[in-house]
Amino acid sequence: MLNAAAAERNKEPILAVLQESVNTGRPLQALEISSGTGQHVTHFAQSLRNIIWQPSEFDRQSLASIEAYRAHYQLPNVRPAIHLDASLPYQYWGGIPPESIDLVVNINMIHISPMACTEGLFKGAGAVLKPQGLLMTYGPYAVNGQIMPQSNIDFDYSLRQRNSEWGLRDISFLSSIAERSGLFLEKIMDMPANNKCLLFRKESLV
Question: Where are the transmembrane segments (predicted)?
């Protein structure tokens, strides 16, 4: 059971956004892309019992950690984690059928992965979400070409030093990518530690 300090800090604020944004009165299907340690999905599943959660990860060590969290909490509404590469088309996402998911959650991936993963996230979410389904992403972002405050500027610089394909993405840029897949930015929510939750709704392109 790996423990990420950031996940421990942000799991409750993100849960509050989910509780406000999704229907808690009927059965729902959720896919978490890039589940990390498993801290988030097991925390959300304990409160949002009406949702069947599908965790996923690219990193093998993280997959083992998710399974350790599942074994520890014994939650009936968390499925076994699947290996998922967000840069690949949804047909390679462990057999998830199109338009079968109510909620896709993606926490702290966009800025710490190549752009192909972000593009794949929106394309895939646009395919697997039901009409009116919700994609929630969380992390630090640039707004209208600007990164604020200084701590996020420094973070962006350190990311790009580690990997030139990483870095904070601009919300308007993400919105334009999302719209190509029928996902429209519905709400931006300010979160602790200069992060934001972005809520995208799947709408008809007609």
Answer: none
